[in-house]
């Protein structure tokens, strides 16, 4: 049993799936790290902030429970599409005039389902128990101005 082992499991999963992973100690740190990188259209980004709660029985470590936040977001920008006549149109999955319902339909619903899938896979492959997961939608998160789905979670 190793402290913060869950971060290694999340990182390995993200590397294998092409998801940008940012382990962190605070949301302000996540924000600064996100600013250091350049992103391609539709890149998935995951951040994770955890505390490790060591549970002892008669002075013997019997469990490590992780409490914290995991977030999954996607970079969406406009792109120019050239048609057969050489004309360009702008195709976008996001714009400044979107309603919350459009944001949900275009990105957040997918991200919520994808985060649930990732958490289930990580738990199953590593014999983790997800004790709770309070999921929320976080619109225009960080300086990146991307939409995220985040959850307060306890994993053991």
Please characterize this protein's 3D structure:
With 156 residues, this protein is an alpha+beta fold. The chain has one domain (5-155). 32% of the residues lie in helices and 41% in strands. It has 3 helices and 7 strands. The strands form 2 sheets. It has a 5-stranded mixed beta sheet with strand order 1-2-3-7-6. It has a two-stranded antiparallel ribbon with strand order 4-5. The longest helix is centred in the last third of the chain and has 27 residues, at 100-126. The chain is elongated.
Number of helical segments? 3
Write down the overall geometry: elongated
- The proportion of residues in beta strands is 35-45%
* Share of helix, binned: 25-40%
**How far is the N terminus from the C terminus?**
11 Å
Run of helices and strands: HEHEEEEHEE
SSE diagram, text form:
Layout: H1 5-17, E1 20-24, H2 27-36, E2 44-57, E3 60-74, E4 79-82, E5 88-91, H3 100-126, E6 130-141, E7 146-155
Could you provide a short overview of the structure?
The chain has 156 residues and is α+β, with helices and mostly antiparallel strands. It has helices spanning 5-17, 27-36, 100-126; strands at 20-24, 44-57, 60-74, 79-82, 88-91, 130-141, 146-155. The strands form 2 sheets. It has a 5-stranded mixed beta sheet with strand order 1-2-3-7-6. Strands 4-5 form a two-stranded antiparallel ribbon.
């Amino acid at each position: 049993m190793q402290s913060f082992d869950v971060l290694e499991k999340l990182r390995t999963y993200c590397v294998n799936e092409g998801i940008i992973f940012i382990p962190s100690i605070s949301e302000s740190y996540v924000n600064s790290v996100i600013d250091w990188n350049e992103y391609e259209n539709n890149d998935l980004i995951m951040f994770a902030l955890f505390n490790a709660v060591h549970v002892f029985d008669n002075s013997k470590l019997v469990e490590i429970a992780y409490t914290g936040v995991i977030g999954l977001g996607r970079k969406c920008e406009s792109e120019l599409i050239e048609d057969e006549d050489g004309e360009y149109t702008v195709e976008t999955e996001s714009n400044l005039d979107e309603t919350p319902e459009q944001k949900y339909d275009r990105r957040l619903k997918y991200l919520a389902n994808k985060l649930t899938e990732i958490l289930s896979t990580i738990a199953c492959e590593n014999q983790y128990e997800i004790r709770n997961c309070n999921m929320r939608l976080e619109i225009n998160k960080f300086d990146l101005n991307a939409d995220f789905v985040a959850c307060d979670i306890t994993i053991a």
